[in-house]
Amino acid sequence: AAETLGGIGVGGGDQLSVVMKFGGSSVSSAARMREVAGLILAFPEERPVVVLSAMGKTTNLLLLAGEKAVGCGVIRVSEIEEWNLIKDLHIKTVEELALPRSVIHTMLDELEQLLKGIAMMKELTLRTTDYLVSFGECMSTRIFAAYLNKIGVKARQYDAFDIGFITTDDFGNADILEATYPAVAKRLHGDWIRDPAIPIVTGFLGKGWKSGAVTTLGRGGSDLTATTIGKALGLREIQVWKDVDGVLTCDPNIYPNATTVPYLTFEEAAELAYFGAQVLHPQSMRPAREGDIPVRVKNSYNPKAPGTLITKQREMDKVVLTSIVLKSNVTMLDIVSTRMLGQFGFLAKELDHVVEELEKIAVVHLLQQRAIISLIGNVRRSSLILEKAFQVLRKSGVNVQMISQGASKVNMSLIVHDSEAKQCIKALHQAFFEDDVLTEVEEEALHMS
Ligand SMILES: Nc1ncnc2c1ncn2[C@@H]1O[C@H](COP(=O)(O)OP(=O)(O)O)[C@@H](O)[C@H]1O
Ligand SMILES: N[C@@H](CC(=O)OP(=O)(O)O)C(=O)O
């Protein structure tokens, strides 16, 4: 017979079914944690694995606290503003959820010790930085698991680095290694079979395979934790809950008229993330694509909104442009040479060095403060997209400095000056997504399909 854990019925035969990942903005306070608990319980038919990021802006605050600790001296660590903000937020959250302070007490003590250690050594390595930021996820998950248990929903907290998330030792931007999948599956599945409880897993974190130290997966890495778990356990769906209605037609901070993109392929989503859309971690689509597990991007502030569904394939016949992405502050190398053949490997070196080397064989211009505008869409309509894009940019008086349509089947990139980039995004968005009237060329192209 099924045993009931809060609203969630857990029977012996039930398997874990979905991953629900909640980002920092979704769990930024006690009130938000209550709402997230409510969201999880609103799907009683699901057996979720929950992945959490650090509360609110905790990761940024930890990084700043670490930087300040390097130069402030041991005695003044207790005065670091960011450390006090972190401490106050977590203590307040625990109190408001009526949990014992012991839930995070040891963590806060250790964190203070660590900041003092950094102050004493006057040094902050990448390895120590990863250990430092890991406290964010370690605390949010402990609080949330304790809260679920308190309201009668059986939950179990896991630190990703203890359950088989094995990574490279690239601190700050580690890659997940293959061994992770069977290890994580064995641990989460084994525990679930033995003693069902909702797993609450730290996002963003892993364990370096050589060093054995805590690593992080790059900013926004909790998305990757979620998709890795989805693939490891072969789950039905991976849900990433954010503070926007899904993947949007452009960054809403750049242009607020952005609207939700209802469907995307893994390829489109990966390209979008890779070219700078903050909404998804650049590597996060890989496990989902490999495991062929749908990813749903949802808004924890507006759960009724349908969100974005990302799958292997979608109907592309009527698709022209899907989304516009901006990557600012890029450096462009303009190389003119007839002697480049066979000169491989040069880009692997440092930029200054690359320029120095290239100057021996070419005329080189280093152009800084440029921006890449990526047009993610149907490349079968690339002529149409580019024709329209150039029309719009010409009208706005913008000079496109380079254009590229790489091997990817879903992306065309334009390089413009940084100072003109936002204005370009706005003009392109208006033309592609807001003007109802199709140009003659578009009509023709769509009729031919
Ligand atoms: N194309 C886009 N679609 C949706 N959000 C975007 C896009 N580009 C940038 N963003 C930004 O990404 C944010 C969500 O990503 P992120 O902060 O990583 O969420 P979370 O921390 O909840 O995982 C949004 O609040 C929005 O400001
Ligand atoms: N907390 C980490 C990892 C993460 O994924 O966060 P978020 O889901 O809030 O983007 C970061 O800020 O990078």
UniProtKB/TrEMBL annotation:
Q: Record keywords: Acetylation included?
A: no
> Part of which pathway?
Amino-acid biosynthesis; L-methionine biosynthesis via de novo pathway; L-homoserine from L-aspartate: step 1/3; Amino-acid biosynthesis; L-lysine biosynthesis via DAP pathway; (S)-tetrahydrodipicolinate from L-aspartate: step 1/4; Amino-acid biosynthesis; L-threonine biosynthesis; L-threonine from L-aspartate: step 1/5
Instruction: State a GO cellular component annotated for this protein.
Output: cytosol
Looking at its record, which EC class is this enzyme?
A: transferase
- Matching SUPFAM superfamilies: ACT-like, Carbamate kinase-like
Q: Which Enzyme Commission number(s) are listed? A: 2.7.2.4
Family annotation (InterPro entries):
AceGlu_kinase-like_sf (IPR036393), ACT-like_dom_sf (IPR045865), ACT_Aspartokinase (IPR054352), ACT_dom (IPR002912), AK-LysC-like (IPR041746), Asp/Glu/Uridylate_kinase (IPR001048), Asp_kin_monofn (IPR005260), Asp_kinase (IPR001341)
Q: What molecular function does GO assign, one term?
A: aspartate kinase activity
Q: List each copy of the ACT domain by range.
A: 374-449
An example Gene Ontology biological process: lysine biosynthetic process via diaminopimelate
Q: Which UniProt keywords apply?
A: Amino-acid biosynthesis, ATP-binding, Kinase, Nucleotide-binding, Signal, Threonine biosynthesis, Transferase
Report which reactions are catalysed by this protein: L-aspartate + ATP = 4-phospho-L-aspartate + ADP
Per the record, the domain of life is: Eukaryota
Give the family this protein belongs to, as stated in its UniProt record.
Belongs to the aspartokinase family.
Q: Report the NCBIfam families cross-referenced here.
A: asp_kinases (TIGR00657)
| UniProt-recorded name of the protein | Aspartokinase
Q: Which organism is it from?
A: Oryza rufipogon (Brownbeard rice)
